[in-house]
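sorry to bug you again but im stuck and you know this stuff better than me. below you get a single protein, a line of residues and a line of whole numbers that encode the local backbone shape. mainly i need to know what kind of three dimensional shape the backbone takes. anything you notice is useful, everything is just below:

***
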Amino acid sequence: MLQGIELLADAVAITMGPKGRTVIIEQSWGSPKVTKDAKFVQDVANSTNKEAVDGTTTVTALAHSIAKEGLEKISKGANPVEIRRGVMLAVDAIIAELKNQSKPLTTPEETARIATVSANGDKEIGNIISDAVKKVGRKGIITVKNGKTLNDELEIIAGMKVDRGYISPYLTNISKDQKCEFRPGDAYILLSEKKISSVQSIVPALEIANAHSLSTLVLNRLTVSLQVVAVKAPGFGDNRNNQLKDMAIATDGAVFGEEGLTLNLEDVQPHDLGKVGEVVVTKDDAMLLKGKGDKAQIEKCVQNIIAQLDVTTSEYEKENLNEVLAKLSDGVAVLKVGETSDAEVNEKKDGVADALHATRAAVEEGIVLGGGCALLWCNSALDSLTPANEDQNIGIEIIKRTLKILAMTIAKKAGVEVSLIVEKIMQSSSEVGYDVMVGDFVNMLQKGITDPTKLVRTALLDASGVASLLITAEVVVTEIPKEEKDPGMGAMDGMGGGMGGGMF
């Protein structure tokens, strides 16, 4: 088990820091993928990446350090359960200290700086991301896609996001990415408050169905290429009704089954359907872009929400109102990545997406010193801990040494003396760190060498969690991989899962 962890950690460590190297990953389809981010790390690393930012590299390095030392101590007779308790005791103290260290982003310039650092020093990308955050707001939606020119571009599209995906994967029309897209062009949307048990009742729209009518909808999608996708209405009760009303306002449609209205599905008319310019639906969510809603009506709704925000005292209510406000007023920012070849676009696109995630996380929870310095400065927070026994103290000591791993790895990749660098940082003021690009000690905040607090926090939490699970595990059961015979002919893109791509 440890051998597998070390194999993964060694590959990931290569990518760490501004002087890290790239890794080339073989894929089952297309050309090999070049990354400086170790996205192939799955499970806990992907969990951190989804929750925070480009944290796959960080969480893997931390988890490896904790697991390696923990397993070594256990082999010498230490109690794994007590070690785990010591580890989690230390992690709780560090998270509290990180919150004390964290500094909020207050200006667009600070946002651009963190985005630039996260984009490996690309100022153009940093400025575009900062501009996108400024235009759509802190909670606005920002996506990254391939551009059609050599230049990077920012496009602001009026749209909203629904936290529900398609109800059947057979409704997708892009099998590779498992999503359904209708663009460009107008798409009609039927909004229903109540369940629909028969496709016959919505023949004029043929847009949504529940479990009973889903088979008919899928059959039409597969056999006659009916351009349709079904999405379950988001939320429950009043929340569902309110979200459908928001969508109706944004798309100039009506909500069928809404209390007080006499609209029947059988009598649906074109003007009852919402209209959007583009639709993108994945298994998790749906994007409604370029809504055709009446601008005056939308503005009136926005002003009403702003007025409610001024008087409400409920944090829960404020959060809900802000979400609606973001959907109706901010729209969607699309970052279009341009390069000379598909391989370059895909590599750059990964970097832009990571920089975007890092920026959003920094806006959300603030920033701490980068280069592993934030964790170094958390060491003192562990001095006051009082473990219940020696094995818990072992867990705390493991974390103390783990806090140095990031700074040591980055320094090692830069070819400098690791122990001297770490020692000097610990003896300097709280804002001083080592800039490997210039080979000198600098004020990290002034130089903009920072990490999103959320990245460091979630990476440490996830790493300690999975490492603790590994060191307390007595048996691991896994499936023996089956050898697949070469079919002798490369599979066509999107032809998988027993369903021919040509049927979509």
User: Anything to note?
Assistant: The CA atoms of residues 189 and 274 lie 5 Å apart.
